[in-house]
Write a structure and sequence with these properties.
There is one protein chain. This protein folds into 2 domains: 5-247, Metallo-beta-lactamase, Chain A, CATH 3.60.15.10; 256-397, Flavodoxin domain (Rossmann fold). Helices cover 34% and strands 24% of the residues. It has 12 helices and 24 strands. It has helices at 57-68, 83-86, 89-95, 105-114, 189-200, 204-214, 234-247, 265-280, 295-304, 321-333, 352-361, 384-400; strands at residues 5-8, 11-13, 16-18, 23-24, 28-29, 34-36, 39-42, 46-49, 75-77, 100-103, 123-125, 131-133, 138-143, 153-157, 162-164, 221-223, 230-231, 252-259, 286-289, 305-315, 318-319, 338-346, 366-368, 373-376. Strands 1-2-7-8-9-10-11 form a 7-stranded mixed beta sheet. Strands 18, 19, 20, 21, 22, 23 and 24 form a 7-stranded mixed beta sheet that branches. A 6-stranded mixed beta sheet has the order 12-13-14-15-16-17, with helices on one face. Helix 6 crosses helix 7 (234-247) and helix 10 (321-333) runs parallel beside helix 11. The structure holds MU-OXO-diiron. MU-OXO-diiron (FEO) binds next to helix 2.
């Protein structure tokens, strides 16, 4: 049976949720599923804003047919051509052959790369700032390249102040009936941050460019392609966070301790360090074993907090591979402006400490705090002074940070 909600006069949410998918993009765990949003506007003309992933196509097409009734679909606005949103375009074009597909030049280039069906006669190409009226409703299109693909646009509905924001302001997590953030007891901001940092995190400067384009617009509602709809006092809350995240500024002072450990000896070093930091008064520390916790969760916390400690053994004359993969991930995502401390461990040949140091130095504004420590096999009491010095340096740095 159809499952739709009217989110504003004449604007219907026609999307859906998937709780069966294990990994978003076949990479990121989805313990609470994921939502794919699409919106249908019923004015003098009708318009659909984006489609959904093919996993929920059946319900989606039923939703559209229910809301349209005996009316035609006049426009399909394509803000984003990634398959989790574009998977139903071809089917929509078959069912509603007169539909105008609204996109930019790159949108149509990608459409032709993904699809066999020739839809060129349906194209309505728009450029940055162009407007489209449905009657009472007027859309203005803003290109938002690399938020999160090159063709991305956001669509602003002028009369109601609604921003259809593509992936921006999205979150992991399926719906439990309520569509608006302010209808929830608690916002799971950790899942919004995990989504942003891992999916869009590399493109902070492009998010900032979009902010500049949207400056001055009255925004009463933000409808992302994933997750809940933002409105009322929740809008400044999420805009403020997006501003911090895209500037690579930490949200909070705090220390994230990330370790790799084969037999517990490297873990012992970082546990002892965390203990010393706690006794000096550091609060809100978070510790992760890279072999146990998916990197997307660790990266979300590294984005959130001001300081990190990385500890890893040497493996096959190299940095332990799981820690190496985490550092590569951080580098590709472009995280910067953090304070970092390093602990290596080795038994007969040292490579981990040097590799971590070199990789961090190649990133942007990652400042070393304290002397990198290299442990031989297991920490003994003769290294306690070194560990105390490192704890002192981290404590002072955290206290001095904003
Ligand atoms: Fe949700 Fe970039 O696709």
């Amino acid at each position: 049976m159809y499952c739709v909600q009217e989110i504003a006069p004449d604007i219907f949410w026609v999307g859906g949720s998937d709780r069966r998918l294990e990994l978003f993009e076949n990479m990121f765990p989805l313990p609470n599923g994921v939502a794919y949003n699409s919106y249908l506007i019923m004015d003098e003309k009708t318009a659909l804003v984006d489609t959904v992933d093919r996993s929920i196509s059946q319900l989606y097409l039923e939703n559209i047919a229910h809301v349209l009734g005996d009316r035609e679909l006049d426009y399909l606005i394509v803000n984003h051509m990634e398959p989790d949103h574009c998977a139903n375009i071809e089917e929509i074009a078959r069912r509603y052959p007169n539909v105008r597909l609204v996109g930019n030049k790159t949108t149509f280039q990608f459409m032709e790369q993904f699809y066999e069906l020739d839809m060129t006669s349906n194209y309505l190409e728009v450029k940055d700032g162009d407007e489209l009226s449905l009657g009472r409703t007027t859309f203005r299109f803003y290109t938002a390249p690399m938020v999160h693909w090159p063709e991305v646009m956001v669509t602003y509905e002028i009369s109601r102040g609604i921003l259809f924001s593509a992936d921006a302001f999205g979150s992991f997590g399926a719906f439990s009936g309520n569509l608006f953030v302010d209808e929830l007891d608690d916002i799971d901001i950790n899942e919004a941050r995990r989504y942003y940092t891992n999916i869009v995190g590399r493109y902070g400067s492009q998010v900032q460019a979009l902010f500049k384009k949207l400056a001055g617009l009255e925004i009463n509602m933000i409808c992302s392609l994933h997750g809940h709809i933002w409105r009322s006092e929740k809008i400044p809350f999420i805009l403020d966070l997006y501003n911090k995240w895209s500037r690579y500024e930490p949200e909070k002072k705090g220390v994230v301790l990330v370790y790799a450990s084969m037999y517990g000896n490297t873990e012992n070093v970082i546990q002892a360090l965390a203990n010393k930091l706690a006794q000096r008064g550091i609060r809100d520390m978070h510790m992760y074993d890279v072999s146990k916790t998916h990197a997307s969760y660790i990266i979300s916390d590294l984005w959130k907090y001001s300081h990190m400690v990385l500890a890893s053994p040497t493996y096959n004359m190299h940095l332990y591979f799981v820690m190496d993969a985490l550092l590569k991930d951080i580098s590709v995502l472009g995280l910067k402006n953090r304070k970092v401390s390093i602990i290596g461990n080795h038994t007969w040949a040292s490579a981990a400490m040097k590799s971590m140091k070199e990789q961090l130095e190649a990133m942007n504004n990652m400042k070393l705090v304290g002397e990198p420590m290299d442990v031989r096999s297991a920490i003994k009491s003769d290294r306690e002074t070194d560990l105390d010095k490192l704890a002192d340096a981290i404590y002072i740095s955290v206290m001095e940070s904003k």
